[in-house]
Design a protein that fits this description.
2 domains, MFS general substrate transporter, transmembrane transporter activity, membrane, mainly alpha, 69% helix, 23 helices, single chain, Growth Hormone, Chain: A, two-stranded antiparallel ribbon, 2% strand, 2 strands, 512 residues
């Protein structure tokens, strides 16, 4: 992870004085910058990161599990009698699923701008309480219009959480450390499918209690969970290494320095403490590589959101009872979780992203081809078996892609906007995914599986394009460094200008 001792990196500045601040730490006088990193052994560095892991990652994982549970439990509610009790017909269920994504996609970029200007723990707490309250109230709806209103406001209140949480992780870990942590966090979404099926199976047994239907109990109970958690999260969720009260000053300085010295080439510095400015917003919104990554993102969201909202119904249509259909979703999501974790650790170890994205979508494509080829509802066991590669292949490339783009955007303000844009427009694929699994095509769902397969193929092609663009830019910068010394290149910029360049710096290297 680190060398036996972390090198002391000196920023030369003739007019600034070094002063000792104790415990072996040094810094420049108040008008300067930190001069020297602490000498931290490899073992001590691992202990510091482990300390951060235990404090940050489990909290975000639990929160994301709850968030994904609340946005996707409409699939379980459908099996539990939602559409029948509300007199829904035709495409009304698809419309209810889709409506969530309208505010969800429009508000993610503004949400991350707010996040960068205030404490992440406070903003995430506000979002969490709001979506929990909305979900709880959805358990009281008695009409189709009420369901639509609930889904809309659920999209409003959940919009900022995922981009906020993924951005928060990038403030703590270096580029080839962040994906495995992000995978543990994201796999909560995969596990939420399994947990949702198990929880819905149990909650359905409350059907008729207090005059409420089973699907109403699902909304009520699963909505109260984030409301209760919100009373604790604001206090225990850490915001950044600079303000982490659970770390010593020595540990905070260590994390700050190692992040600053992780621009990709080892000869420059990046910053996570830049203030949000108009230039960062424009840079994040106008980077064509982020828009290219959106197409790759659609390969995931088109399939995942259609799949999670429909898979209980698909299994139900194979001849299994509603209760067993809920339970049979569990092994599918557990398998997808295992594959996602394996891909994440392997990708960080190999220090590359794109091959794992391509491999994941290839696995999903095989699953979709099989679903199209199998004559439904014949061979229910075979049909069920090929749902496993569909889920695994859709989930595992996602965390690779988010990490890839996070690795390729600097400074942090541009990263906050760019990641929010990727997730925002990328989640518009959920609108398509929610409307391609048509009830009249059950249990074969030809349109749904065919469109999902097409988007996986498009994602594979765009991954090759983006890899080629990053490789070409890295080669240009390597050639510049070969022709000019680092001192000559640095002479063209001040230290602050070099930091402001971010991923445009001649020293920055894109991950492939």
């Amino acid at each position: 992870m680190e060398s036996a001792t972390a090198k002391s990196n000196v920023i030369h500045n003739d007019d600034k004085k070094i002063e000792d601040i104790g415990d072996g730490e040094k810094k420049l006088s108040s008008d300067g910058e930190l001069e020297a990193n602490l000498a931290v052994s490899d073992e001590e560095g691992r202990k510091i990161l482990t300390k951060v892991d235990y404090r940050l990652v489990p909290i975000l994982a639990v929160l994301y599990l709850v968030a994904f549970l609340d946005r996707s439990n409409i699939g379980n509610a459908n099996v539990a009698g939602l559409t029948t009790d509300l007199g829904m017909h035709g495409l009304q269920y698809n419309t209810a699923v889709t409506l969530f994504f309208v505010p969800y996609t429009l508000l993610e970029v503004p949400s991350n701008i707010v996040l960068k200007m205030m404490r992440p723990s406070r903003w995430i707490t506000i979002l969490m309480f709001s979506w929990g309250l909305t979900m709880t109230l959805m358990g009281l709806v008695s009409s189709y219009g009420g369901l639509l209103a609930g889904r809309f406001f659920l999209g409003v209140t959940e919009a900022g959480f995922f981009p906020a949480a993924t951005f928060l992780l990038t403030l703590w870990y270096r580029r080839y450390e962040v994906q495995r942590r992000m995978a543990v966090f994201y796999v909560a979404a995969t596990l939420s499918g399994a947990f949702s099926g198990l929880l819905a199976y149990g909650i359905q047994k409350l059907d008729g209690r207090s005059g409420l239907e089973g699907w109403q109990w699902i909304f009520l109970i699963e909505g109260l969970i984030p409301v209760v958690l919100s009373f604790f999260i604001w206090k225990i969720l850490p915001d950044s290494p600079e303000t982490a009260s659970f770390l010593t000053q020595r540990e905070r300085n260590y994390l700050i320095h190692r992040l600053a010295e992780d621009p990709g080439s080892g000869t420059a510095r990046v910053t996570n403490q830049d203030k949000m400015a108009k230039e960062h917003i424009i840079a994040g919104l106008s980077d064509w590589k982020v828009w290219a990554a959106v197409v790759i993102f659609w390969g995931n969201t088109v399939g995942v959101y259609g799949f999670t909202a429909t898979v209980p119904t698909v299994i139900n249509g194979l001849g299994y009872s509603a209760a067993n259909a809920q339970l049979l979703t569990i092994p599918i999501y557990l398998f997808a979780s295992i594959v996602t974790i394996i891909f994440a650790f392997w990708s960080d170890y190999a220090q590359t992203r794109s091959p794992f994205i391509i491999a994941g979508y290839c696995i999903a494509s095989c699953g979709f081809i099989a679903q199209l080829a199998i004559p439904h509802p014949l061979y229910p066991g075979l049909t069920y078996g090929f749902l496993f590669p569909v889920a695994a292949g859709l989930y595992c490339p996602f965390v690779c892609l988010v990490s890839w783009i996070a690795n390729s955007l600097a400074p942090s303000s541009k990263r906050a906007v760019g990641m929010a844009l990727l997730i925002s427009v990328g989640n518009m694929g959920g609108i398509m995914g929610s409307n391609i699994y048509l009830k009249r095509e059950a249990p074969k769902y030809t349109t749904g599986f065919a469109v999902s397969l097409t988007m996986c193929c498009c994602a594979i092609v765009m991954t090759f394009v983006l890899r080629w663009a990053y490789r070409r830019e890295n080669a240009k910068r390597a050639k510049l460094q070969a022709e000019h010394s680092d001192e000559e290149i640095r002479a063209m910029y001040s230290e602050q200008e070099m930091l402001d360049l971010g991923d445009k710096s001649p020293f920055f290297r894109y991950t492939l």
